Amino acid sequence: GVKKIKHYCTSFGKWSGIKKFAADLCYRRWSVISASKALSDEAFYNIKAQRQTVINNAVYFPRLNNYDVIKKTDIGFSENCVLCFMMGYDYTLKGIDLACEAVKNLRKKFDACLAISVSSNVEKITRQITEQLGGFPEWVKILPPRQDIATYYRLGDVYVQASRSEGFCNAVIEAAYCERCVVSSDCEGITCHAKGKMDFFWFKNGDASDLARSLEEAAFNRNNKAIIDKNKLSAIENYGVDALAEKLYNEYKAVL
To answer: Are the beta carbons of 114 and 88 closer than 8 angstroms?
Structure first.
């Protein structure tokens, strides 16, 4: 008969009521491949599948080899500042509020700045930053999204992933490949696959003070070749498309 496989790559939250009943009914003879251990736990709750497997997502690294070289002065900052770069479309979920608070505190010690690539909700996020900080500060810039995202990764000194929740986060892997130190929250969706493989600067999820501590440490190590080289190699070895293809092939064979 036909074998059905569901790829569970995004968090949908825990289902209940009629939605969970329908999922149990529809997917009970399926196999499920989850992109992280955190997603697998969620999928196990939501779907009574025959088989549950974790296979990490992959990153197509060649696309990150195409980028423009832009300077900090091109976006209105001093070349001597420590530039923290992050991406986000949701102020709270992606921890933009935490990053703003952490960088504000760091500025008491050195010239730290924050650039945020915002794909949607630009006006709302601008308003939220203004409300939080009592005005829109000159040390924060909102950048438009771009296809060659490696341009932004390489513009920054440190990449910040302040998410309160993630299913699987490609951005931390991409930033590591682009030879940037990564500061990340210890939310389960990231730690479950990256901790132990990558030398990230971790901070306690939701804690702006701890984020400031990790940012300061990452800023100090932003030219640490040992950390940068290790993380890039680990990204290639663990998250490349070829590695994913082999794992999926073996899983499909096992299901069939």
So the answer is: no
